[in-house]
Amino acid sequence: AKTYYHNFVIKETKCTRLCATKNILTVNEQFPGPTLYAQRGDTIIVKVFNKANTNITIHWHGVDQPRNPWSDGPEYITQCPIRPGTDFTYNIILSEEEGTLWWHAHSDWDRATVHGAIFIYPKIGSSLPYPKPDKEIPIILGEWWKSDVAEVLAESLLTGGDPNISDAYTINGQPGDLYNCSKKDTFKVMVEYGKTYLLRLINAAINNELFFGIAGHKLRVVGTDGGYLKPFDTDYVMITPGQTMDLLLFPNQPFNSSSKTQYYIATKPYASAVNVLYDTSSATAILQYKNFKPNKLSPSKSPSFPTLPDDNDTNSATDFTSKLKSLASQEHPASVPKEIDERIIITVSMNLLPCNNTTPCLGPQSGRLAASLNNISFQEPGIDVLDAYYNQIPNVYGEEFPQEPPFYYNFTGDNLPRVYLLPKLATEVRVVEYNKSVEVVFQGTSLLASENHPLHLHGFRFYVVGRGFGNFDKDKDPQSYNLVDPPLENTVGVPKNGWAAVRFRASNPGVWFMHCHLDRHASWGMDTVFIVKNGEKPEEQMLPPPKNMPKC
Ligand code: C2O
Ligand code: CU
Fold first, then answer.
1. Domain 1-128 has CATH 2.60.40.420
2. Ligand 1 centroid to 59 CA: how many Å?
3. pLDDT at position 110, please?
4. pTM of the model
5. In the chain, how long is the greatest CA-to-CA distance?
6. ipTM tops 0.95
7. Under which EC number(s) is this enzyme classified (predicted)?
8. Tell me, what DSSP letter sits at residue 355?
């Protein structure tokens, strides 16, 4: 295995979109940031210099980081922030991941502009389980505010209400033709008829699930979250923040005088909540055929927009997601835990807190918005959990994250008792014994608002063995689990008014954050931490900390 070295310099950089200029945080003055390349099992070492005037950390999303939570990145979970003027070196240890992952800032909402792709190739001597592409193109979907993103977050936390919606979605940092002042910078993908392209799609948006598609072209889905899938063709993709999709594109549109040479690549929101405002716009890029001059006499046509589902089309979103199946081949077997040692049922809820002195309470129903897992709204500690665990510093966190919801009720019903709206504010973690086979069932609730929640676990990829609508039934639902070829993911979309069940073996000792990847929910407390204990043997134990961990 090889080791690659990179320097990331975090800086404020001037950037103009939608006719407005602001300072954004960038890595090496690039937005989106640099792509990292590696082969399965390699190590990437990234030295991060913070030359901005704000704290930052970087997370390597979807990298398991075996025994090495020290380099995982979430602020106040596995490290203290990298202060302005200081640096920190991350050791990114790849193991079984193959395909597309990404990296992003993991401090407040800095990831809005601090993110980039990670391409992981098979080991030398092994090949891809799909036709080798002639070219690969990262397609990073994002979200843009004209105002400073840190201010959007701060204002929302101060008022207790929903954050301002974004002003645009972006494709590789560009809003595209449909927005003011954006046309000349629209991202273009040049393709040749008959060749094969791999689009490495990443949803880096802060608060929105997205539909994605290309006019006139089908996409072949071959991978997700750093693993391979059974290939299938589709007209559209639904992707939640945090997820990646590997898509093969075959430019095969006929050449004749009346055909188009340009097609829109587009993304638009999938909005699962009913009463939450969201950015309703669409970002576009252009797919342009090379070597083909349209007949000058033919009516010049503007590119057509792909047919994508309506914003609130839950059936289409669910339909796409249910097609994801692990490749489960001889070379890439699915090792789904058939038996489990423990099932943890976690309710995923929006909540309402009473007003207090610091929030003027402009939120709905005169409260301030909060969010929770098992009715605990996570409070960020002042020292990182990993430091507290490793060095046995008391009073930083509790180990009382419940195994089951504190009360059973009709989670997805109407008119739920208001008493459940109030979460407990605490820093509670779940401790899991080494190598236990764990099932987590995420149960959506309709407290306050029902909505999809993309739940992301650090340190593991899990098999998504079941999903359904309504309340999880622990006697009936496990009977219909897919234990043969469920998709291996690091972020699962828990359906609105429904549940999702995931399984993994707790063979990675460390401190691992788990949270909703809609940042507004994560900021409101929809987070918890899994502490996986060391095993007996030395190779079953956490690596020692590097010497240069930042101090809080
Ligand atoms: Cu993509 Cu905890 O993050
Ligand atoms: Cu959420």
1. yes
2. 7
3. 98
4. 0.96
5. 77
6. yes
7. 1.10.3.2
8. -
